[in-house]
Amino acid sequence: MLRRVHPRTARSGPTGHDQVVENLGGVLTLSPRPGDGTPEISWGDTFFYYAPDGVVPRAQPFATIVTKDYPDDGSSRLDRPNTFRLNIFAGKEAFIERTGHTPHDHAANPADPSIADTLFPHPVYGAQAWLAVVNPGPRTATAVADLLRSAHHLARSRYQRRESHADN
């Protein structure tokens, strides 16, 4: 079984994004580990879902924390000591506001995804309006908090739409 953790125990950087997530409400935080039936590649990472009923939804998480390079995703250099990446589903509007271009144009506007405390389009999921930051810190604290609140709001809205359709 997946370990469900209180967000305050999730791996977090100096931005206090764990407190932001904790205060959002309805968040299910999952941290896969050995022996819980999850793929080994996910062990040590953290996944944040909007799930007020505590049931893992079929939907994607609204944010994740990854602690290692994944296959075809090594550009953030998460193999360095004490390095992790916070990934947040921004949605198209927030993505454009933060980057100055559409999600589909992210490849034409390259950023170095290994620089700490810098917001950038996710190296793999940028075209789907995901943003990321390696080792969030003081420079990105406000943006990270705003993006987490927005991502949670988007996830909650999708959940409520699904629930209202299920009731009809």
Q: Would you give an account of this structure?
A:
The structure is a single chain. The protein has one domain: Aspartate Aminotransferase, domain 1. The protein has a seven-stranded antiparallel beta sheet with strand order 1-2-3-4-5-7-6. It starts with a strand and ends with a helix. The model is unreliable at about 5-15 (pLDDT under 50). The chain has three helices and seven strands, in the order E-H-E-E-E-E-H-E-E-H. With about 170 residues, it is α+β, with helices and mostly antiparallel strands. Pfam families: DUF6194. It comes from Nocardia nova. InterPro entries: DUF6194.
What is the topological layout?
Elements: E1 3-4, H1 17-22, E2 27-31, E3 46-50, E4 63-66, E5 85-89, H2 91-99, E6 119-121, E7 130-134, H3 141-167
